[in-house]
Amino acid sequence: MQNVYLFMTIIKKSDSEEFIDFYLKHDAAPIYSTICQGSANSKTLDLLGLEKSEKIMMQSLVPHNKLAELKNDLTRNMSIDLPDRGIALAIPLSSIASRRVLNHIVKDENEENIQKETSERSIEMELVVSICAKGHSDEIMNAAREAGARGGTIVKAKGTASAGTDKFFGMAISDEKEITYIVTKKDQKSTIMKAIASYTYADGAHPIVFSLPVTETAGFRLLD
């Protein structure tokens, strides 16, 4: 199902109301928000004269016919390409369990278009996701930066596990976790993932690493 996407936007917490209004006007609701933080280390922040600030990760499901409009308006009207303003990316979904939800998302398309897959897009960017024990995200980012990553976003989380399944690759599932999201060019993905996976961590902190394809981006002008 290449005509429905998870659209993620990562911005400063202070800008959240402005971006919520933007997405509501573009009928890209509901919006799910999560508090997170940037990965810039203290030395970098001091060099740039910046303070560490909380971020908001917004997520919404949008149809293919809205992607170009959202991307263009984020750049033109929301100035997302400005330094430290934010980033946005689209990840294609493979399926949706509820026909009701699908019809709501693609309500402007007919039944034929809902079932029909769009032509395969050229994947130039990837989202590398790493899940590790609490307190090790700095190690994750240091390893990723040495492999070419420019930056990332960190989300606090907590695992859940039933009795007998509370260990996964030596990591306690039910403990507090940190999820690191890194957007990178496709040709750098493998190097970054291997660097994160092969780094020597403290006992029980070995990360789980995987990647997702990204078909559209906004706010990456400096990376380009």
Can you walk me through this structure?
Helices cover 29% and strands 32% of the residues. A nine-stranded antiparallel sheet has the order 10-5-9-6-2-3-1-4-11, with helices on one face. It has 224 residues and is of the alpha+beta class. Mean pLDDT is 80; it is low at 110-119. It has helices spanning 16-25, 42-48, 64-76, 99-105, 111-115, 137-146, 186-198, and strands at 4-12, 32-38, 54-63, 86-92, 125-133, 153-158, 167-168, 171-172, 176-185, 208-214, 216-218. Helix 6 (137-146) packs across helix 7 (186-198). The radius of gyration is 18 Å and the shape is globular.
Mean pLDDT: 80
**Total E-strand runs:** 11
Radius of gyration (CA) equals 18 Å
The main β sheet shows up as: 9 strands, antiparallel
As a percent range, the share of strand residues is: 25-35%
Order of strands across the widest beta sheet? Answer: 10-5-9-6-2-3-1-4-11
Structural category is alpha+beta
How far from one another are the termini?
28 Å
Order of helices and strands: EHEHEHEHHEHEEEEHEE
Shape: globular
How large is the count of helical segments?
7
Considering DSSP H and I runs of 4 or more, what fraction of the residues is helical?
25-40%
Low-confidence stretches: 110-119
Task: Write out key terms for the chains shown.
single chain; 224 residues; alpha+beta; 9-stranded antiparallel beta sheet; two-stranded antiparallel sheet; globular
